[in-house]
Design goal:
Strand content: 15-25%
Structural class: alpha/beta
Number of helices: 8
Number of strands: 5
Strand order of the largest sheet: 2-1-3-4-5
Order of helices and strands: HEEHHHEHEHEHH
Shape: globular
Largest sheet: 5 strands, mixed
Radius of gyration: 14 Å
């Protein structure tokens, strides 16, 4: 989770949305990333998607032995990728500022661990307070 949080901080320092993720296979990080919607003008580069992208093409069996660490509860898009690649375990930094599709993941057999890390919570709360319009844009809320 420390590496995922480092990615989230990098995104925040770049002026983006502070969500980070790492994909771990056999105790080794094979992909890391952070939300780059702002930095790259992307509609799909959430932290989890960026980590998957940066892991490159992998054999399906690799994904099926991975753990995805993410600083925030995965949204529907990222949860879909988790299900598509059959990633069996997701460790979530926090789900207080946003509750993603954890129920769907659990129903589909994904092991979920929510640690509610105070640093993850504090960074998201700070970001949401500073840039509510950007946060609402990212999660689709209408003001």
């Amino acid at each position: 989770m420390l590496e995922a949080f480092a990615e989230a901080k990098k995104g925040y320092q770049e002026g983006g949305i502070p969500i980070g993720s790492v994909l771990v296979y056999k105790d080794k990080i094979i992909g890391r990333g952070h939300n780059k919607r702002v930095q790259e003008g992307s509609v799909i580069l959430h932290g989890e998607m960026d980590a998957l992208q940066n892991a490159g093409r992998q054999n399906a069996k690799v994904y099926q032995e991975c753990t995805l660490y993410t600083t925030l509860s995965p949204c529907p898009m990222c949860s879909g990728a988790i299900l598509l690649y059959k990633i069996p375990r997701v460790v979530i930094g926090e789900n207080r500022t946003f509750l993603g599709e954890e129920k769907l993941l659990l129903e589909r057999g994904v092991q979920i661990e929510v640690i509610n890390n105070s640093e993850c919570i504090d960074l998201m709360e700070k970001f949401i307070k500073e840039k509510p319009e950007l946060w609402n844009e990212d999660i689709g809320e209408i003001e």
